[in-house]
Automatic annotation (TrEMBL), chain A:
The lineage of its organism: Bacteria, Pseudomonadati, Bacteroidota, Sphingobacteriia, Sphingobacteriales. InterPro entries: DUF2752. The keyword Transmembrane helix applies. Keywords: Membrane, Transmembrane, Transmembrane helix. This is DUF2752 domain-containing protein. The chain crosses the membrane at residues 50-68, 80-98. It comes from the Bacteria.
From TrEMBL, chain B:
Residues 1-50 are annotated as: Disordered. InterPro entries: MpPF26. Residues 32-44 have a biased composition (Pro residues). It comes from Pedobacter frigidisoli. Keywords: Membrane, Transmembrane, Transmembrane helix. The keyword Cell cycle does not apply. The chain crosses the membrane at residues 62-91, 119-143. This is DUF4190 domain-containing protein. It holds the Pfam family MpPF26.
Length: 107, 157
């Protein structure tokens, strides 16, 4: 079972969507790394996931939280989503600027 | 708003007419829609978010979902993020305005959703615009000054 899962994840790793932006323009977009990051998250490697794309975990949290909120109509749901969303935007921005400064856009 | 004409509930003998008119079909046909700009019925407003006779704002959920999708969509050329963000912004703003016109008509939770959708749309729009401006600058730089472009991206080694 465990090996099967690992094989599946390996297979998935070779069949990620290529970023259309990167194939056309040759450098990363602000979302590049997200799929690899999710993959390493599925493998259980939190640190690697964070290194590849820091916004993954909050982003997934927002998705799940929104679904729960729309189903169950939580009291502070909208407020939490707003704050988390702003946080994610800031993280993405900082990550991208960091990449530019360290010449990691072309890899 | 067509509902403003039919104010007093008691004076109307014929109830049929009223039941047909509301433009947004209410899910729960409790005590019919409270007249706008009047004291809300004593039981309705606050105790339960799902107040009786109140309905959800029509676009609140759509605005919220679109606003959240806009951030991942921002990575496809930034254009999709811009589109989703602007749509979420407009839908959310429209609903907020609608709620402010007569707050007693709609549920408060959907108002909060609409507001969150509006803000998420705004953030996504700003992010997409920043990205698009960045790309345009890069392309312009690459065309006019290729060496600086190489240095900028590949470092000085």
């Amino acid at each position: 079972m465990d090996r099967q899962l690992h094989n599946f994840l390996d297979w998935l790793g070779h069949h990620l969507f290529a970023c259309p932006f990167k194939t056309h323009f040759g450098f990363d977009c602000p979302g590049c790394g997200f799929q690899r990051s999710v993959l390493s998250l599925l493998k259980g490697d939190l640190l690697e996931s964070f290194k590849l794309y820091p916004a993954t975990i909050p982003l997934l949290f927002i998705f799940i939280y929104t679904i729960v909120h729309l189903r169950m109509d939580l009291k502070i749901g909208a407020q939490v989503i707003k704050i988390a969303f702003a946080g994610v935007a800031v993280i993405i921005l900082i990550n991208y600027i960091y990449k530019i400064y360290n010449h990691q856009l072309i890899s | 708003m067509s509902e403003e004409q039919e104010n007093p509930q008691e004076n109307r003998p014929i109830d049929l007419n009223k039941n047909e008119t509301p433009p947004f079909g209410p899910l729960n046909s409790g005590p019919s829609v409270p007249p706008p700009f009047q004291q809300p019925p004593p039981f309705g407003q606050f105790p339960g978010g799902m107040g009786m006779g109140q309905q959800n704002l029509p676009n609140a959920t759509a605005a919220l979902v679109l606003g959240i999708i806009a951030i991942p969509a921002c990575c496809f050329y930034g254009v999709f993020g811009l589109i989703f963000g602007v749509i979420a912004w407009i839908l959310g703003a429209g609903d907020v305005k609608k709620y402010n016109l007569n707050p007693s008509l709609y549920t408060e939770s959907s108002y909060k959703n609409a507001k969150a959708g509006k803000i998420c749309g705004m953030i996504a729009t700003i992010l997409s615009v920043l990205f698009i401006v960045f790309v345009v600058l890069i392309i312009a730089g690459a065309i006019t000054n290729p060496e600086a472009y190489d240095k900028f991206f590949k470092g000085f080694n």
